[in-house]
Write a structure and sequence with these properties.
about 400 residues, alpha+beta, Neutral Protease, domain 2, 2 domains, four-stranded mixed sheet, 15 helices
């Protein structure tokens, strides 16, 4: 096995593998973890095929096969299979990878990818959201520079949210060392009632099935003022961070980065004047969804102490696609772990690691790889040491919180 680079633009480290002679190759199989492989569980992969971190032609490639090889099938997804060879597990397309355009069409049809890509679709979503405001109740104004459609009449609440939204880009830049942009291009829809938000969400399967308290996509951010213990300020920070990311990143980063950045800021304390304090823990206990501060942190530490089976192992979490992230049985803890893994990298190590992580985010924003190996390389460590450091950090904080 030798290691080479795919080129400066891709910035990927690839392991180029040629199959060893049959007598030297260890027997392929899934052992106790996967059961016994039958003949139909094997598939031939052609020379030149890439093993990727996700079933996506844009995902990080970490293995190239120099010759045709037979590999086990652990999972199928359209033209892709998940497979394992030697020390590597990933996704490969035995019949050839799709183009990026083909991938997006196939993923949309299969429900693996949810994006509002066309102007018509974005307009449809905004129109659907505005209809539920009612023409007689809807006001158009701005919220920290973002165009705002709302039926909220509480001037105090709107003033606080406006101040918070206006100061968020500066907090984002200071926290992540990324330029947030100066001209918000997407709208915000703020409902007075949760019922109106739920009715809007029910019109779009990809939103309704998430059962969240807010939503952001290529068109807008949508949320409601409150009720049921939800803090609209925390939800607003989370969703606006997604809108900022859509302008900052040339292509979507790995899901743990996208959701971890939004959740990291959304879980932070907000003072009475609407100032966000990144890196702190919000003191208001709310639902453990897209906000929740102290509740989310205490739940994560309790699970770490008492039942780690409720948490996705870090290596698996870092490789999840968005669809896998939100449909996974670990969904709630996926958000929490992503947020606090981001916090670990920014606040739980040392200044050089913080700087390297911010540089990694900057590279990812320009389209560079954002998978686990790329992260470990950027931090000058290994995936194993990265996991060990994070788990030790969690263990110490769990013990201190007893």
């Amino acid at each position: 096995m030798r290691r080479t680079r795919a080129g400066p633009a891709a910035a990927l480290v690839l392991a180029v593998i040629a199959p060893a002679a049959a007598a030297q190759d260890p027997p392929l199989g899934r052992g106790a973890a996967f059961g016994v492989l039958e003949l139909e569980d094997m598939v031939r992969v052609p020379a030149g095929a890439a093993l990727r971190s996700r079933p996506d032609p844009q995902a990080e490639a970490f293995v190239l096969f120099e010759a045709e090889i037979e590999v086990p099938v652990l999972e199928r997804r359209g033209r892709w299979i998940r497979t394992h060879h030697r020390d590597w597990t990933g996704w490969v397309a035995p019949g050839g990878e799709p183009t990026v355009e083909q991938y997006e069409l196939e993923a949309l049809a299969a429900g693996y990818l949810v994006v509002a890509t066309s102007a018509a679709e974005r307009a449809e979503r905004i129109a659907a959201a505005r209809r539920l405001l009612g023409e007689e109740n809807a006001d158009f104004t701005t919220l920290g520079g973002w165009p705002l459609y709302t039926d909220v009449r509480d001037a105090g609440a709107l003033t606080r949210l406006d101040r918070l939204a206006g100061r968020l880009p500066a907090a984002y830049e200071e926290r992540f060392a990324l330029r947030a942009g100066t001209e918000p291009r997407r709208a915000v829809v703020l409902y007075r009632s949760e019922d109106a938000y739920r009715r809007f969400a029910s019109e779009f399967t990809d939103i309704g099935e998430l059962h969240g308290d807010g939503h952001a996509d290529d068109a807008m951010a949508v949320l409601y003022l409150g009720g049921g213990g939800v803090d609209p300020a925390a939800v607003l920070v989370h969703e606006l961070t997604h809108l900022i990311n859509r302008d900052v990143f040339q292509r979507p980063p790995m899901t743990w980065i996208e959701e971890g950045m939004a959740e990291d800021l959304g879980l932070s304390r907000i003072d009475g004047k609407g100032n966000l304090e990144p890196g702190t823990i919000g003191v208001r206990e709310t639902r453990a969804t897209t906000s929740g501060g102290r509740f989310v942190w205490s739940q994560l530490l309790r699970d770490w102490r008492q039942d780690r089976g409720r948490l996705q192992p870090l290596p698996a979490l870092l490789d999840l696609s968005w669809a896998e992230f939100v449909s996974d049985r670990y969904r709630q803890s996926n958000y929490a772990q992503s947020a606090f893994f981001v916090r670990y990298l920014l606040d739980g190590t040392d200044p050089p690691t913080r700087r390297r992580f911010q540089e990694f985010l900057a590279a990812a924003s320009r389209g560079a790889a954002s998978g686990t190996d790329a992260l470990a390389e950027a931090l000058a460590t290994s995936p194993g040491r990265l996991r060990n450091g994070y788990e030790l950090w969690l263990t110490r904080r769990a013990a201190a919180s007893r």
